[in-house]
Amino acid sequence: MAISVVAPVLGHAQIQTPAASPRANLSQTVGLTSVTVDYSRPGAKDREIYGALVPFGEIWRTGADAATRIAFEHDVTFGGEAVEAGEYALYTIPGEDEWTLILYSDTSNWGAQGYDPEKDVVRVQAEPQRIEPFLETFTIGFDYLRDDSAILHLDWVNTRVPVKITVDTSTKVEASIASAMENPDALGPRDYASAAVFYLNQGRELEQAKSWMEKALEEAPHAFWWEHNYARILAKLGENEAAIEAAKASLEKARDTGGSAFGYIEMNEALIERLRN
User: Fold this and answer.
1) Strand order in the sheet with 23-30
2) Which residue, of 133, 159, 206, 254, has the fewest CB within 10 Å?
3) What is the rounded distance in angstroms from the CA atom of residue 270 to the CA atom of residue 244?
4) Could you say which DSSP state residue 8 is in?
5) DSSP state of 75
6) Where in the sequence is the domain holding 66, given as residue range(s)?
7) What is the spatial distance between Cα 153 and Cα 161, in angstroms, rounded to a whole number?
8) 35 and 92 housed in the same domain
């Protein structure tokens, strides 16, 4: 009698362990432009970082593992240098008193292996700043967000390296407004208010902004937040008495909510006080 023996089939191992430097993806809208960053986040782990693990004066991948990548939806300026829309590797050269930040055309490198300065798109300088408290994990983030700019910062241990990114928001918004105004029947009060606040924040076309905000308030007289901005427009135009009356109306409606009204009570009070002095 024959006996057959079937050996077990051994598959490929599928063991998973945590990454030493977890990958992170960050997306931030600056004005109307999306900026995304893909990078790995090493930890200090009781090591000396700058000047040791990350040497001064040498190309650094600005993170760990694969090169850090940054992508711009539209053209930007990076540290004052014009950069076309697209994706780039972000390299740095750390220094004790000054860093060099590099946007690099080839995003396929593993870390800084194969780095070729001929592929640099721009190089900009940045001054490192001391931060507290100690930051264990390398972090890239955005701060000081404005309609047309933001600060990108590289933070680790007690060091922050900031670089300013600016975008051309005005041109895009103006084109959007011009296109929308060709079909006014399709617009609602929010459209008119948004256009008015944009010009208010730009400090121009204030008569047009005034007209648009008046139209918005005709359709939404309860909108005390828009009425506050209407008062600000009037103040910018030098129509102080009218601005005070608009601020008072906004204040009364804000108080009627029975809550803090998102700070509009205090903002209206401050505006009225300033215009009276």
Assistant:
1) 23-30, 33-40, 69-72, 86-93, 99-104, 120-126
2) 133
3) 11
4) P
5) -
6) 23-167
7) 5
8) yes
Domain count of the fold of the chain = 2
Structure tokens, 80:
């004052």
In a domain, 10, yes or no: no
Is the separation of the CB atoms in 32 and 53 below 8 Å?
A: no
Residue 112 main-chain phi, psi, to 5 deg: -100, 10
pLDDT reported for residue 1? 47
Q: What pLDDT, in 10s, does the model give residues 244-260? A: 999 999 999 999 998 88
User: Does residue 81 sit in helix, strand or coil?
Assistant: strand
What are 180's two structure tokens? 């929308």
pTM for this entry: 0.85
| C-alpha separations of 267 from 86, 229, 247, 274 in Å | 41, 10, 9, 11
Q: Do 129 and 160 meet the contact criterion of CB atoms below 8 Å apart?
A: yes
Residue 143 contacts by C-beta under 8 Å, 6 or more apart in sequence? Answer: 150, 151, 153, 162
Give the per-residue pLDDT at 3: 52
The letter for the amino acid at 238 is G
247 vs 241: CA distance, rounded Å: 10
Mean pLDDT over the full length of the chain: 95
Nearest Cα residue to 206 out of 171, 189, 176, 231: 231
Whole-angstrom distance, CA of residue 83 vs CA of residue 257: 47
Phi, psi of 215 (to 5 degrees): -65, -40
Based on the domain organization, do 133 and 92 belong to the same domain? yes
Q: Is the pLDDT of residue 79 over 50?
A: yes
15 or 72, which is more confident? 72
pLDDT attached to residue 14? 87
The span from the CA of 145 to the CA of 167, in Å, is: 11
192 within domain boundaries: yes
